[in-house]
Amino acid sequence: MKAEIVAIGSELLLGQILDTNTAYIAGCLAGKGIELVQTTSVGDNLQRMRRAIKAAIARSQVVITTGGIGPTEDDLTREAIAQVTKRPLAFQPHLMEQIEAIFRKRGFRMTENNRKQAYIPEGSIPVENPKGTAPGFIVESADWVTISIPGVPSEMEYLMENAVIPYLQRRFHLTHQIIRYRVLRVCGLGESAIGLQIKDLMKQGQNPSVGTLASMGDIRIRITAKADHPEEASMRIGKMEEEIRNRLGILIYGVDKETLQGNVVREMERLGLTLSVAEAFTGGIISQKLANTGSASFAQGLVLQSETSQRRFLNVSPEAFRAMREDQKSLTDAFAEKARQEGGADIGLAVHSRVLEEQGGDEYRMETFFSLATLDGMERQDHVLGGELSTSRERASIMALDLLRKYLLKATQTA
Length: 415
Fold this sequence. Notes:
- This protein has 415 residues and is α/β, with parallel strands linked by helices.
- The chain folds into three domains: 171 residues, MoaB/Mog-like domain (Molybdenum Cofactor Biosythetic Enzyme, Chain A), CATH 3.40.980; 78 residues, Alpha-Beta Plaits, CATH 3.30.70; 155 residues, CinA-like (Maf protein, Alpha-Beta Complex), CATH 3.90.950.20.
- Helix content is 42%, strand content 28%.
- The chain contains 14 helices and 17 strands.
- It has a six-stranded mixed β-sheet with strand order 2-1-3-8-7-6, sandwiched between helices. It has a five-stranded mixed β-sheet with strand order 14-13-15-16-17, sandwiched between helices. Strands 10-11-9-12 form a four-stranded antiparallel β-sheet, with helices on both faces.
- It starts with a strand and ends with a helix.
- The relative contact order is 0.08.
């Protein structure tokens, strides 16, 4: 069974509010094995609303709309559904009574335009709303249903759980089939390179299905399984996860909502290690990520943005510092070792860079150096990063944490 969501409201298109309703409804549908095939956002324009709803009905058995059922002139969902389904709006006295009761309960005086909310398409099923003054409604046909509920998140969530999902279970005899997913989080390769390694696992129509989503410095691999029982879905996901892990190995750093920094500090805690960071390029991003974990394994972070602060940190003369800058890798090593010693930590992590090319505006091509000072010696990497400075700093912070993660993996294996 296929479903679509039509989120209604010009405020969504203007960026005034974030559409969290669609994500919530999608999760509710997935939990009952209902496949969501498309979502649409449309403004408060009757003609566009009609087009969006009509197209959704033509594609899917279940169409859920949110928003546009308030009392004002731009609340047009009722009219759009009535026109698309060719059912005139009809006044429902019992809905009017409920709306009036809510106003009395809250100590407000109802205005005449709230009467509009008691009109729903003729022959539709009312969805009573004890949380607010906007009742929903369901229009049924032999081949599809449309379900219209409020856009206020608290009201929408209540009606999804207490009215919409129970209705869909009864109407479509949803008993067992469910959809489950797991997300593997990867760093160290780009999306295209990851895609090549798991290309054969991403074919259309497979169960479980596999897809990728890229964000800055982080690739997410989503494994989605359909099954009649949770155990079967978990088994399908587990087999696919094992295959992907066999191919990608240590590139996978976490699962679902785990973060790179969270997993790094958890491993440091397990090994009884502490960390001090010197950031001569990333502007405190690494320290902020680590500090937000609340872990005591992160001892301190220092931001060394200027040449003066870098020289003073190393406690060398201007002449000596200029000589050190001739070898950027050794300079970054010095930052890492000094951070380790000054912080009284087991590990010192440092990031430094130099500009190779100014690309105009705030964009640069930069050679970036990473050093990890440990009791066993120095680990280092260097990468060329390009683009906006803020983007390069974020990417560099992820690379630095990933260098630390891989060192901790080695330390675990030799412990």
